[in-house]
Amino acid sequence: MERVQRKIRCDRLPLAIYREVAAHLRQIKGIEVSLLEQTSQEFHHLQSQVGGLLIEYDGDLPTKENEQLESILAYYASKYNSWSNLT
Question: DSSP assignment, residue 38?
Answer without folding.
Answer: P
